[in-house]
Design a protein that fits this description.
binds NADP nicotinamide-adenine-dinucleotide phosphate, about 220 residues, 6 helices, NAD(P)-bd_dom_sf, Rossmann fold, SDR family oxidoreductase, globular, alpha/beta, SDR_enzymes, oxidoreductase activity, acting on the CH-OH group of donors, NAD or NADP as acceptor, SDR_fam
């Protein structure tokens, strides 16, 4: 039975990844921060792991618990948007900067050495949930500055992970889920979370059609870095 690790599975896109992989018969390791979320994921059939990605102690605990697992897919999903700025006139505070950059950039950097060896035996896929808003080539507006900067940096993490892990057989993708109706995306977003995740699962599941080192949207369309 194939297995997936979803980092940040309590709600939104991460929860839907857990649901869909479980429905497909996969073993799912799902991380959460709160007890109600642990119970929710457990009742769905997931193996639950407590992880605040900002907590190095919990990260070490998760690495220890997963030691020896053979993973087919890891989804680095946990993320925050930060301040909803409309231009560059109100730069982030130190606290805002730290929260967003530590969650969206530092945590993925710390996951790579943990999950790389767990994915290599199955020649698995590391899917990093990026955003089109992190594309430097496409940047044409200045709203959401801190989030954009963090996702551009996260894209570099994905590229470097590809460079290092592809010789071990691990495929790394940076994925844009679309503008999705979740707490982060809001109610006016144009993509249902079920469709976004179904599309990303299709992309993740077909290494011949979508090779590693790519930045792709949930329909498999290539995006400019
Ligand atoms: N929705 C969109 O339109 C959209 C578009 C482009 C990219 N994305 C990306 O897709 C990913 C998921 O987005 P979403 O819309 O599902 O967001 P969401 O509804 O706001 O959910 C965010 C998830 O991240 C987890 N998380 C945040 N900080 C964490 C931490 N310190 N430790 C552990 N988990 C943490 C949350 O856990 P808690 O429940 O414990 O807070 C929750 O599971 C993000 O990386 C986001 O940047 C989303």
């Amino acid at each position: 039975m194939p297995s997936a690790l979803i980092l940040g599975a309590s709600r939104g896109i991460g929860l839907e990844f857990a649901r869909q992989y479980l429905a497909a018969g996969w073993t799912v390791h799902a991380t959460h921060r709160s007890e109600p979320d642990r119970l929710k994921l457990r009742d769905l059939g997931a193996h639950t792991l407590k992880l605040d990605v900002l907590d190095p102690g919990e990260l070490a605990g998760v690495a220890w618990q997963l030691d020896g697992e053979r993973l087919d897919v890891v989804v680095v999903n946990a993320g925050v948007y930060g301040p909803r700025t409309s231009n560059l006139q109100k730069p982030p505070t130190d606290e805002e900067f730290k929260l967003v950059m530590r969650t969206n950039v530092l945590a993925p950097m710390r996951f790579i050495p943990i999950v790389g060896p767990l994915l290599a035996p199955a020649r698995g896929t590391l899917a990093i949930l990026s955003s089109r808003m992190g594309s430097i080539s496409e940047a044409g507006a200045s709203y959401g500055m801190l989030y954009r900067v963090s996702k551009a940096a996260e894209n570099m993490v994905a590229k470097l992970a590809h460079a290092e892990l592809s010789p071990t057989g691990v495929r790394v993708l940076a994925l844009h889920p679309g503008w999705v109706r979740t707490d982060m995306g809001g109610p006016n977003a144009d993509v249902a979370v079920e469709d976004s995740v179904a599309g990303m699962r299709r992309v993740i599941g077909d290494p011949m059609a979508w090779p590693g080192g790519s930045f792709l949207d949930y329909r498999g369309q290539s995006l400019a870095w």
